[in-house]
């Protein structure tokens, strides 16, 4: 069983304590090709391409200029500690113990516009390149055309040959689009997290849903879950599985806010 996550735009680039164990992104050679397309872009071009402020564009132009392989603990950081958005606050990697981090590394894969797919303890250098960015490249007009079948092929390599493999899709639609479900050797289960008030009007609230995706990974790590059915017992921060609202491969978790 593997969980798929999106990356985060917010990064923690400080030299915090992180485990001495690390690995290299499996598609780093492909990331270098993309960086060759990114590095020549001036801040103004990045601002237009990514629809970001001039300040962020300058920051990312500087990141691109400094980006260089090989990655070491001195110039890079493990992905699970670098990403700093709502999902990763839900995981709370800095407060996970050694066994939990090992579980996360072995069961989680993070989709990335620049790196394709990374494991939690893979070293990465700071970047900003969302999967939906229309970056012209050697393979097409956007990142979906650049990655093609490569991310799915890599995930299949990770899954192996078991007929019982499960992928728990906790990624956003933007990132999951890089996966080719018809070619994936696994059953895909997509948890959906909805919040309501006084037992009614349940809907997906982006901030809460992102955090809940991280909470589910935390729950799985804390309980060393190997059987996907046990995820239906997920109950962190008030969520509960709702069988009536769920289907075979879309599992709905509801949380009620009482006013």
From TrEMBL:
GO BP term, example: response to hydroperoxide
Gene Ontology CC terms: cytosol
InterPro entries the record matches: YaaA
Family: Belongs to the UPF0246 family.
HAMAP family to which the protein is assigned, alphabetical: UPF0246
NCBIfam families: PRK02101.1-3 (NF002542)
Protein name as annotated: UPF0246 protein NCTC10283_02033
Source species: Alysiella crassa
Gene that encodes it: yaaA
